[in-house]
Amino acid sequence: MGNGLRLGRIAGVAIHIDWSLLIVFVLVASSLGVGLFPEWHPDWGPGLIWATAIGAAVALFASVLAHELSHALVARTWGIAVRRITLFVFGGVAQIEQEPPNWRAEFWIAVVGPLASAVLAAVCVLGAGLSMRPTEAELEDTGQLFASVGVGGTLLLWLAQVNLLLAVFNLVPAFPLDGGRVLRALMWAVTGDLRRATRWASGGGQAFAWFLIATGMVMMLGVRIPFLGGGLVSGLWLAFIGWFLSNAAALSYRQLLVREALRDVPISRLMLGEFATVPPDLPVSALVDRYLLHTDQRAFPVMANDSLLGMVCLREVRKLDRAAWDKTPVRDIMVPADQLASAGPRDDAGEVLSRLAAKDLNQLPVLENGRVRGIVRREDILKWLALYADLGAEA
Question: Per the domain annotation, does 393 fall within a domain?
Answer without folding.
Answer: no
